[in-house]
Amino acid sequence: HPQVAGVQEDGCGALANLCAGDGAAGLARIQRAAAAGAIEAAVAAMQAHPQVAGVQEDGCGALANLCAGDGAAGLARIQRAAAAGAIEAAVAAMQAHPQVAGVQYHGCGAMANVCSG
């Protein structure tokens, strides 16, 4: 249901929660989600619903968590996110919703992680 904003918001929120954590188990979940296409799915949701603040907030949160971690796997996820348009999606979200604190917060987190590699 890519055109249903509520489904996309909930999906991005679920990805953000699933990919939270920096221990071994958290990094394994992040890697598994990325391998399943979570980065591209979050960017696509954000692109499909640019005026829905909840999609933008949760999409940025998902991207921030998906791009956490270092080492070769972390750098590969960062490069994948950049190639998928994550930088542009996060910037567009922050520009479209300047008064929504959650979008600004998670947008900054996404940018910090995507631009750290």
Give structural notes.
The protein is mainly α and 117 residues long. It has helices at 5-18, 24-35, 38-48, 53-66, 71-84, 86-96, 101-114. Helix 3 runs parallel beside helix 6 and helix 4 packs antiparallel against helix 6 (86-96). The longest helix has 14 residues, at 5-18. It is globular. The model has no long low-confidence stretch (mean pLDDT 96).
What distinguishing features does this structure have?
117 residues, mainly alpha, 7 helices
Concise synopsis of the structure shown:
The protein is mainly α. Helix content is 77%, strand content 0%.
Shape: globular
Poorly predicted residue ranges: none
What is the strand tally? 0
Helical residue percent band: over 70%
Q: What is the topological layout?
A:
Elements: H1 5-18, H2 24-35, H3 38-48, H4 53-66, H5 71-84, H6 86-96, H7 101-114
Helix pairs in contact: 1-3, 1-4, 3-4, 3-6, 4-6, 4-7, 6-7
